[in-house]
């Protein structure tokens, strides 16, 4: 009977469906134009052409669902009136509630009293009365908007924040919510009034508007307020402008432009001001001038094999990022990465296939450290690297062919900054063959023989004692990696013990000499291996130098043993101990690496995951004779339900500059209650016995709000920037800017 009544109610709609082309069924299984209705009682008045349904009424039509205690359909007027616990559910999942609602027969337009709606992301709108113009526009009178929870355990709860207004218009087509005479309330108290207000529809992916501001106070800039504004230029581009207003110094403007193309994207950050310089207390000095920075990158795909890109990183002042607290500066934006507090500008192109690789690049570096002199940094152009692997095995093993070339131009020598001596300009071309095979015996002994052969050609200018030089050399190494993993299964874990041996032999390598020190010892060309460290990652490398300028030669044997435990529940731990032996001393290695003598320092490395969400690591280099700690590094990461944090410790008795380094970095976030938590972070220089920076914060968060307050103390002295203190405040409201992760 109900099926017959439903057919009679909207026969015109069914006829329309028959006249239109067939379309896929909707999510509820109905075709477009078809109607399904059920109720405890249905009464049909043929004379008045009225259908009345009572008791748990449910109607589904064109992807929408209407539920009510009573429903009256007037066929001639094309009007549906629903009363009592009315719900309308759209195909997108948003739900609207009302005491009474009058709709057209398409359920798209109507009027409601006692109206409320819950949107897709759990935001709510409620009003005394509402007018639904169409499926995209709702007008609400005496309304309130909030994304917060409004009831707990069936008891009324004041939302953390809300917006009340005389009139609210939700325009889903434009993806905006407009307010007239709006009052923003926090914990039920009015804190802000505006006659006109709008924000993006919570369902909008991107929309122009203000983003969460940041307020702070520091010794350097005084009180500061930064208000970002996002301008959506097109579906593929946007611009964010963030003016920073300061009480002690002139305003500073930060910006970010992003655009996506069919083949790639551009991301450019920039900022600037017109002001004098100032010290750590905000006292000005020097002349007024433009001070600015740019941090830009782009990456594009030419076709399936080729891609190209660039980075542009420059700053007018060495300390501009510190003075104006610009964050996320020293990030990886391209394939080549500079050191901390240094900027790199590069352009590159890469062609990659399964068996071949080619890259071409050029870059320059700007140093922002107090001791940096940009003239001593080389301009690298070009830098070419290529690899090719034959598709078939050669002599039963894998063969790789490599080629590379680089040209470095340096304006000033870094050896003596008191004199403007010309720097060494160098050009290198290299060709290399790398062959490797692998054999495993029935007993599990694994042997991997390898052979590497290389030829280098150099062109040097401004070398001490000569105007130019063009040395060439041939290099080679042959050897084998040998391992014998042993397995043992216990009740709930697997233990693996693996002895490791590498034997390698090379003829004497001709190192490139560019001068001699005061004692008459040669100074070798070393543009690409200066930051080399001897640890578990380089222990079993046939040539331990990471670059090309220096090469390891002679007979050497690298030995070690690794033990690992793998528990069935996911926990694991491993320990590696190893050492390198050679037939004679090698002065090509810096003394600080522990690789010069015939018996190297000891390498010990361990890592573990004792608990879910907890990981730890450590690596130590011990003196080969006394077993004193020459270099040590340790760290841990924790990610638990109510706590997360990190710990890093580094000690190096002789860093790249020959100085002792020892520092400690740590940070943590602890959720104390369902809503309150604290954060702390710090970096301490243990050589100077002083904190470099300390952060302490407290935050409140719930399903719709996050408030952060940070205190920072910086003790680092950078030029005329001495120690400073600052306090920052950040308020984030869900659906008004950024999403909140309250997990």
Strand content: over 45%
The largest β sheet comes out as: 26 strands, antiparallel, barrel
Broad CATH class of the domain at 2-203: Mainly Beta
The total count of strands amounts to 47
- Termini Cα gap: 50 Å
Shape assignment: elongated
* CATH architecture tag of the domain at 2-203: Sandwich
CATH topology of the domain at 2-203: lipopolysaccharide transport protein A fold
Return the structural class: mainly beta
Which stretches are poorly predicted, pLDDT < 50 over at least 5 residues?
A: 1-22, 738-743
Number of helices: 3
**Average pLDDT:** 86
CATH fourth-tier homologous superfamily of the domain at 2-203: Lipopolysaccharide (LPS) transport protein A like domain
The radius of gyration is: 35 Å
Q: What percentage of residues falls in helices of 4 or more residues?
A: under 10%
Sequence-ordered SSE layout with sheet pairings:
Blueprint: H1 2-9, H2 11-19, E1 35-38, E2 41-45, E3 50-61, E4 64-74, E5 79-89, E6 95-104, E7 110-118, E8 124-132, E9 137-146, E10 151-152, E11 155-156, E12 161-171, E13 176-186, E14 189-200, E15 209-210, E16 214-218, E17 222-226, E18 229-234, E19 237-246, E20 252-260, E21 264-278, E22 284-301, E23 306-315, H3 320-323, E24 342-352, E25 356-367, E26 379-388, E27 398-409, E28 425-436, E29 439-440, E30 446-461, E31 468-469, E32 472-483, E33 486-489, E34 493-506, E35 513-516, E36 522-524, E37 554-567, E38 572-582, E39 602-611, E40 614-622, E41 629-639, E42 643-652, E43 661-671, E44 676-685, E45 690-701, E46 705-714, E47 724-733
Antiparallel strand pairs: 1-3, 2-3, 3-4, 4-5, 5-6, 6-7, 7-8, 8-9, 9-12, 10-11, 12-13, 13-14, 15-18, 16-17, 16-47, 17-19, 18-19, 19-20, 20-21, 21-22, 22-23, 23-24, 24-25, 25-26, 26-27, 27-28, 28-30, 29-30, 30-31, 30-32, 32-34, 33-34, 34-37, 35-36, 37-38, 38-39, 39-40, 40-41, 41-42, 42-43, ...
């Amino acid at each position: 009977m109900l099926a017959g009544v439903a057919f009679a109610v909207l026969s015109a709609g069914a006829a329309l469906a028959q006249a239109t082309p067939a379309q896929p069924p909707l999510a509820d299984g109905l075709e477009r134009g078809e109607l399904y209705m059920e109720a405890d009682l249905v009464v049909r008045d043929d004379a008045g052409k009225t259908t009345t349904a009572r008791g748990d009424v449910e109607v589904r039509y064109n992807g929408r669902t209407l539920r009510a205690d009573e429903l009256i359909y007037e066929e001639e007027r094309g009007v549906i009136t629903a009363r009592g616990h009315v719900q309308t559910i759209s195909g997108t999942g948003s739900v609207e509630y009302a005491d009474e609602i009058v709709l057209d027969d398409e359920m798209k337009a109507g009027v409601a009293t006692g109206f409320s709606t819950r949107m897709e992301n759990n935001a709510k709108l409620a009003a005394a009365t509402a007018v639904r113009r169409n499926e995209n526009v709702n007008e609400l009178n005496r309304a309130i908007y909030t994304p917060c929870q409004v009831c707990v355990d069936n008891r009324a709860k004041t939302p953390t924040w809300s917006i009340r207004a005389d009139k609210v218009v939700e325009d889903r087509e434009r993806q905006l919510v407009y307010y007239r005479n709006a009052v923003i309330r926090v914990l039920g108290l009015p804190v802000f009034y505006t006659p006109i207000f709008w924000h993006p529809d919570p369902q909008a992916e991107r929309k122009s508007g203000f983003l969460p501001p940041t307020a702070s106070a520091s010794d350097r800039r005084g009180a500061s307020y930064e208000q970002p504004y996002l301008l959506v230029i097109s579906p593929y581009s946007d611009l964010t402008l963030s003016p920073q207003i300061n009480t002690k110094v002139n305003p500073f403007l930060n910006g970010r432009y992003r655009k996506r193309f069919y083949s790639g994207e551009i991301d450019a950050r920039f900022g600037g001001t017109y002001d004098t310089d100032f010290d750590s207390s905000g006292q000005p000095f020097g002349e007024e001038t433009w001070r600015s920075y740019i941090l830009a990158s782009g990456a594009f795909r030419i076709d399936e094999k080729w891609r190209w890109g660039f980075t542009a990183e420059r700053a007018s002042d060495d300390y501009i990022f510190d003075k104006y607290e610009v964050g996320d500066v020293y990030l990886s934006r391209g394939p080549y990465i500079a050191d901390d507090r240094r900027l790199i500008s590069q352009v590159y192109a890469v062609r990659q296939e399964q068996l071949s690789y080619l890259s071409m690049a050029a870059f320059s570096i700007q140093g922002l450290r107090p001791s940096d002199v940009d003239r001593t940094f080389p301009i690298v152009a070009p830098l070419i690297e290529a690899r090719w692997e034959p598709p078939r095995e050669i002599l039963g093993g894998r063969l790789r062919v490599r080629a590379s070339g680089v040209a470095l131009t340096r304006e000033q020598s870094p050896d003596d900054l008191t004199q403007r001596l010309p720097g060494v300009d160098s050009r290198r071309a290299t060709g290399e063959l790398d062959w490797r095979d692998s054999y495993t015996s029935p007993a599990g002994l694994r042997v991997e023989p390898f052979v590497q052969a290389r030829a280098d050609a150099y062109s040097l200018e401004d070398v001490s004692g000569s105007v130019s030089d063009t040395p060439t050399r041939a290099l080679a190494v042959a050897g084998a990696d040998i391992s014998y993993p042993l397995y043992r299964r216990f009740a709930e874990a697997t233990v693996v013990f693996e002895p490791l041996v590498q034997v390698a032999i090379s003829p004497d390598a001709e190192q490139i000499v560019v001068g001699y020190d005061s004692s008459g010892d040669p100074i070798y060309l070393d543009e690409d291996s200066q930051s080399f460290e001897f640890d578990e990652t380089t222990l079993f490398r046939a040539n331990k130098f990471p670059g090309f300028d220096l090469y390891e030669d002679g007979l050497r044997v690298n030995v070690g043993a690794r033990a690992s435990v793998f528990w069935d529940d996911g926990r694991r731990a491993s320990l590696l101990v190893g050492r390198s032996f050679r037939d004679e001393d090698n002065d090509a290695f810096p003394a600080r690496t522990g690789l010069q003598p015939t018996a190297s320092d000891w390498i010990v490395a361990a890592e573990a995951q004792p608990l879910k969400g907890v990981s730890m690591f450590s690596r130590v280099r011990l003196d080969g004779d006394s077993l004193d700690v020459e270099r040590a590094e340790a760290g841990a990461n924790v990610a638990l339900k109510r706590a997360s944090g990190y710990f890093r410790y580094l000690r190096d008795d002789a860093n790249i500059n020959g100085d002792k380094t020892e520092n400690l970095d740590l940070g943590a976030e602890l959720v104390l209650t369902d809503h309150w938590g604290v954060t702390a972070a710090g970096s301490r220089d243990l050589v100077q016995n002083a904190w470099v920076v300390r952060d302490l914060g407290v935050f409140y968060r719930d399903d719709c709000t996050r408030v952060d307050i940070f205190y920072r103390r910086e003790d680092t002295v950078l030029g005329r920037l001495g120690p400073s203190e600052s306090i920052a405040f950040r308020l984030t409201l869900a659906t008004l800017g950024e999403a909140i992760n309250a997990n």
